[in-house]
Amino acid sequence: MRADAFSRLVGLIGFGIGGFYLEERSPLLVRELISADIRLWVFPTAGAIVGLLLGPYISTHPARAIRKLLGQTSTHVLIVGLIGLVTGLMVAALLVWPLSTLPSPFSQLLPSACALLFSWLGITVFVSRRMDLLKIFRINEKDPVLDTDNVSGDIAGVLLDTSTIIDGRICDISKCGFIAGPIIIPRFILDELQHIADSSDHERRRRGRRGLDLLNQLKQQSVLKVTITDLDVEGVREVDSKLVMLAKELGVKIVTNDYNLNKVAELQGITVLNINDLANAVKTVCVPGEILEVKIIQEGTEDRQGVGYLNDGTMIVVDNGKSLINKKISVSVTKVLQTSAGRMLFANLE
What we know:
- This protein is α/β, with parallel strands linked by helices.
- It folds into four domains: 2-62, no CATH class; 74-136, no CATH class; 158-279, 3-Layer(aba) Sandwich (Rossmann fold), CATH 3.40.50.1010; 291-349, CATH 2.40.50.140.
- It has helices at 2-24, 28-33, 36-54, 60-72, 75-100, 106-128, 130-136, 162-167, 169-176, 187-197, 202-221, 239-250, 259-267, 275-281, and strands at 158-160, 183-186, 226-229, 253-256, 272-274, 291-299, 306-309, 315-319, 328-339, 342-349.
- A hairpin with a 5-residue loop joins strand 7 and strand 8.
- Helix 1 runs antiparallel to helix 3 (36-54), helix 9 (169-176) runs parallel beside helix 11 and helix 10 (187-197) crosses helix 11.
- It is elongated, with a radius of gyration of 32 Å.
- It starts with a helix and ends with a strand.
- 23% of the residues are buried.
């Protein structure tokens, strides 16, 4: 706030002085319509008001945006960008002499335009190809905020989304060592969790608070490093879109159990670790003809069907089991159906 106030004061003085110079160079029509005494008050006053209002927007606000951008950019990207800038300026310098021999006004405009163009091209090309350049010099790019290697997506770590944190199974998965690399949680995911925890809806508030408790448990018990990062994606408001773009920028994987996020990320070439897929993969394998014991707990959708569940949560539909609700019986598996929602078994009474 002090910087904004100071910039407003400087803007007030600077634009006020500019108003005096503008009054001296005002068009003849203005001089005829407005007397000199009024102009000496109107122009400086108008300039001072404009400077007071626009001071922070032309000084401190751009400076903060640039500082934030530089803070989120790795050292290697800054160095490569600087090299690209110098290279672009050198190429532009070689073209200054032939361009200056052109007739006016091209001799005045084209050298400056050429310098701007090649500076932009140098920065863009060098930054976009920085991985190849760093590999040539055998330098591994590390992110100073995350302390992770961005060259290899296999060891760069994983990003967690909100649904994964609330789900809670990530705590056990991380302790078992199925995830390689550090666990990265963006600040905007924490903000969404806090927003859910502060919701007026009781169920949403309960889920949000559960997510915050599980996140604290994850940081304390995980064998992997859990990092909270302030990296953000400017111009994007949707949390899932931010997560996908950040994963693409960092070259990391996303851990989720959200079906829609899974599909969107895969369409953009991002590797997704789906907790539901992992749970389905490690469920007990059942084959037709196998004998199981199951307790029928409810009616099925079809006539005479009963429904029960195995210990791992797999649903089993038993033909002619409707009359055996709340009884534990032996059944013979007849069919195994794998769906996107999980594994489903069909069985007859043994």
